[in-house]
Amino acid sequence: MESTKSFEGGTPLAPFVREGVDPEVTAVKQLLKLLDKAAKSARTYGTSNPVAQRFFQQFYDDLTKHLEHHTRLAFLVQRNQLFFRDEVVYEPERDATGDSFAFKMYSDGIRELTFHQGLTQADLSFFLDALWGTSSSERGSEEEKNDEEDDDIVTRLWAKDLNTITLVTAEELVRSSGFGPDVFELQTQGFMSMSVTSLRELLDRERAMMSPEKGHKTGMADHEGSGTTGTGIIRNQRFQASVVGYEVSQPELHALAQEIKVETARDATLYILDVLTAVLASEQSATVLTKLFEVWDRVLDVLVRNGQWTVLETVLTLLQDAEAARPDLSVAHKQQVVGLFEGLTRPERLKAIGLYLNRTPHAKAEGLLTLLLMMNKDAVPGLCSLLAGLEGPAHQAVVMEALQTIARDNADPIVRGLTDKRPAYVKNLLTLITRWNDPRFADGVEKALRHPEATVRRDALRLLATLRPSGNGTKLVGLLGDGDETVRLTAMKVLASGQFSAAFPVWAPFVTADEFHDRSPAEKRAIYLAMKHTAADEAVSYWQGLLTEWSWTNRKKKEELALLAADMLGKLATPAAIAALELGQKKGSAAVRQACGAALSVASRQHRQSIPSAANS
Hints:
Blueprint: H1 23-45, H2 50-70, E1 72-78, E2 81-84, E3 87-90, H3 101-107, E4 110-116, H4 121-132, H5 134-138, H6 142-150, H7 153-160, E5 165-169, H8 170-177, H9 185-188, H10 199-210, H11 212-224, H12 232-236, H13 250-265, H14 268-282, H15 286-306, H16 309-320, H17 322-325, H18 331-342, H19 347-359, H20 368-373, H21 380-389, H22 393-406, H23 412-417, H24 423-436, H25 442-447, H26 454-467, E6 471-472, H27 474-477, H28 485-495, E7 500-501, H29 504-511, H30 521-534, H31 540-548, H32 555-572, H33 575-587, H34 590-616
Parallel strand pairs: 6-7
Antiparallel strand pairs: 1-2, 1-4, 2-3, 4-5
Helix pairs in contact: 1-2, 10-11, 15-18, 15-19, 19-21, 21-22, 22-24, 24-26, 26-28, 28-30, 30-32, 31-32, 31-33, 32-33, 32-34, 33-34
């Protein structure tokens, strides 16, 4: 059999008689040895391995230098060998077919491989990845990996459309010449003796001979191109076979362009939903419908992650009406639809809602409430977690509105949340309970009176007074020991409403302690006023002692308490209170006597006003 050649730089593809050793052939052999080492290292250790990267870089550097002098490097591919000119420049060891990149290319239909000047490292890397599939095995998703493994080398390179790497395939040879797929069969028919520089030019000449007009246009394109063989239209057609197309007039072309423009402008998500809706409305196959509802479940995931609440509302409404639109749905499919709604409460979906809203502080909440209201009572714990994690008040308000409806009859998570350490979350829960205004939650609200945040304790106290407006005030008196003055004053204000009772022994530990003298005048007055309404005559003995007490220590502060005591006794105006004031008017200091006199006048007026009231009643 004649030797097969592919000369560089325009040398004819003709038998070559060796005269000594060709230095270029030697250089190419060394180049391919580097490629072989790089390929083996990448397959064994991965492309990120330093050894594989070093071999690859050295191969790329030497190949680039070669292309700087020769513009291109072409190889003929035969089974398990690569030919350069008339020499076998690559042949693996015996029984190493599986590791041979020549065999890999040949089995995928490649009959000629050419590297062109200007080859980039990225193009070369992609070619080697496509050759051995390392890109799909080391990078990308599992689906992408499976898709790439289903494609051959030619398909992958055709999709990439590399300009610096060209191929001739067996399919092109068959379609252009009408002969068998083996490249060496071309030699026996005399094709290899033609004055061309590669199989690519051979195919182009063959096509030109079969179609003069096409050949003329191809020649013109070549002539008008860069001047390098294989450029222009020829290079763009390197993966194309003899394709028959349709003539399109300019008006038709314009109409198609407009349709494409309109189609491209459509929202991709809505387009997909339209397709899925059409399938739901018309599909008869039970298997396809089962898969369709599985797809709808993934659609819900995507819409939730992207915060597309209005679209999600439309989808859920559609699914709600699925049974009415498709009365022929099987029981299993109806259960799938129910499962879609039950799946709305999955923790990962509620978490995704929170992540999106916190990531997008100004995100619109339109449609979100509808989504949350479509959830059942099982969603309450998840919605509480969502509320606790949200940062925006507007978004918190939406979740609270949903909880107000969903959690009213399943409020255990709400009550448990009152012991949470996050103040904003607990205050939101208190607001929620305020809206319900249900006394059943009073015991739970009491737990919030021990919260470390003073504003929470104050809100809880006010709510408790609404839920439980009367009764035993002992626990409220206990708030006299609270570290925040506003909380203490709020508690005293509630007790002063006259709806609570608390015996004086409950008050005694606070009002008889030395620390009581250091409290502000406003607080001491509020405490005495609360004592008047809750303990009444039980506190008279304590106040009387203040009126008649003489002391050399803390005299000013004790006198201040005595003046407050006289005022409280005058407002109490009971016989016991009047008797205490009369005693104080006799035995107290000058200031106390004056205060007792004024208090007796107040008590006398109250007594006179109470007589007509009693008569009228």
